[in-house]
Amino acid sequence: xxxxxxxxxxxxxxxxxxxxxxxxxxxxxxxxxxxxxxxxxxxxxxxxxxxxxxxxxxxxxxxxxxxxxxxxxxxxxxxxxxxxxxxxxxxxxxxxxxxxxxxxxxxxxxx
Length: 111
Prior knowledge:
mainly beta; Immunoglobulin-like; globular; hydrolase; Transthyretin/HIU_hydrolase_sf
């Protein structure tokens, strides 16, 4: 069992992206199960994405960046950002930061 967290940074402004809706889905073949949903805090963090640690498998970490950019009065190419990952339950923690701007996003495995 492992914990998944994220931190969203708006690289176009050089600051955390607050109040971004994020959710975690488990993907099992054609079945998709919502595992948890929250919003980023003032520091852009979503530490309590799921109430319990998750098992090994394929997951999608999704962020509603379209609504975030609309709320800040900016156009964007992307409606959402999706990080599609394979999680090993043998790892205690996966931190998946998300770097966003109106016309790009990227992620990496953080610590």
